[in-house]
Amino acid sequence: ATAFDWKDPLKASALFTEDELAIAETAESYCQERMLPRVLDAYRNEDYDAKILEEMGELGLLGATIEGYECAGVSSVASGLITRAVERVDSGYRSAMSVQSSLVMGGIHEHGTEELKEKFLPGLAKGKKIGCFGLTEPNHGSDPGSMESVAKPHPSKKGYYSLSGSKTWITNSPIADVFLVWAKLQETGKIRGFVIERDQCPPGTLETPALKHKNGLRASITGMIQMDDCPVPEANMFPDIEGLTGPFSCLNSARHGIAWGVMGALEDCIDRARTYSLDRKQFKGNPLAKYQLIQKKLADASTDAAFGILAAAQVARLKDQGLATPEMISMIKRQNCDRALVNARVLQEIFGGNAASDEYHIGRHVANLFVTQTYEGQSDIHALILGRAITGVQAFC
Ligand code: TGC
Ligand code: FAD
């Protein structure tokens, strides 16, 4: 007889192939055995261990949907399951991976020349090189179309562009080797994508100061990219893509990954809150789990996590068939981030005063989930994307 499994309430696993389940198991084992023991120190000290990307690379977990270039070529569902396993440990670890895999490798794979792909993808796939993605600027976050970063022919180096401008809140930038940066070409005013290599930049032309003292996502490194007449070979500009479609096509993949990832973080909160509620006794020796108000919190969170995974799996399958639209991705990114944050915050109450200790992990997830709801399009921005698609009227400005 089929029994209800609180860890997989709607039996989402029945939708996944054997290969996808095996990949998920590899990722889960790695994350629980190798990542989880590091996370408290990393979070306390805002110290990301770049070896993690190398370890993930060895397991074939980076840029996993890409075919060739030493990548695994798995389905979008498998890639979603990897993301969910990583974020079960920490959203910051997932961030470092998403930027590497979806934003940088995905961008180079989709828009780069064959030379750029061959030069950069294998090193990024193995985690030997670290990538970052520079779209947001100090004055332009939700509205990247107004960016001020500019590219113009280099005044003294033939065959080079010169890039100037600032990017901020950039995951991995202080430790990155490869920078996918978006800037407006001065002669056309159109946004173009450029691949910058740190070790090819003369001193003073590319600086990447870290943004310290974050109150969320502390296990991931965040910084700025400051470009001052930074020389970039013309061959490092994406040849055929201009306008916001370039960065947004990379964001479609990363946002899809976040929709899976945050469900992993929420599932970890549910697991920990359930265990705590069974162990902790209050009033006549009863476990907290005996009380109806506690059970309702678990039931609400569990329902949202189960629905969220089904929705992400549906969009992943459509994505692989070429049938997913950006609005579908906005819908699951917004819904899953919002529900993960709201439920994690409610589950935090079950821990009472112990929630204030980082050793119970729940507070870390709550602080992280605020960030996931903000980056890659804040939830209200995704509501406006959906509102525009539903009504045909744009409400951004
Ligand atoms: P809009 O008029 O809507 O579009 C301009 C052009 O872009 C095209 N486009 C898309 N193409 C592909 N996929 C999508 N999702 C697309 N969305 C738009 C669109 O078709 C149009 O093309 P064309 O040829 O007609 O020019 O542009 P808008 O300026 O009105 O944009 C408004 C808005 C709100 C939709 C957009 O700017 C937005 O999504 N803002 C949010 C910004 C954002 O998501 N930033 C993310 C930065 S990266 C990051 O946060 C990484 S964190 C990673 C981590 O650590 O895990
Ligand atoms: P703003 O655009 O100033 O928005 C502030 C608030 O106003 C939001 O609630 C927003 O929804 C609301 N708002 C804005 N416009 C409207 C409107 N028209 N109608 C209604 N409400 C509106 N960016 C990168 O490019 N690469 C990265 O790797 C990266 N990593 C990040 C890592 C972290 C830890 C963080 C915190 C951010 C990261 N970002 C990155 C930046 C992130 O994408 C932006 O913070 C995000 O897009 C929001 O932009 P903003 O912070 O400028 O907020």
TrEMBL record:
Occurrences of domain Acyl-CoA dehydrogenase/oxidase C-terminal (ranges): 248-390
MF term (GO), any: flavin adenine dinucleotide binding
A UniProt-annotated Pfam family: Acyl-CoA_dh_N
Cofactor(s) essential for the protein: FAD
GO cellular component terms attached to this protein's record: mitochondrial inner membrane; mitochondrial matrix
Subcellular location per the Swiss-Prot or TrEMBL entry: Mitochondrion matrix
Residue ranges of domain Acyl-CoA oxidase/dehydrogenase middle in the record: 132-230
Domain of life, per lineage: Eukaryota
SUPFAM superfamilies registered for this protein in UniProt: Acyl-CoA dehydrogenase C-terminal domain-like, Acyl-CoA dehydrogenase NM domain-like
Family per record: Belongs to the acyl-CoA dehydrogenase family.
Protein name as annotated: glutaryl-CoA dehydrogenase (ETF)
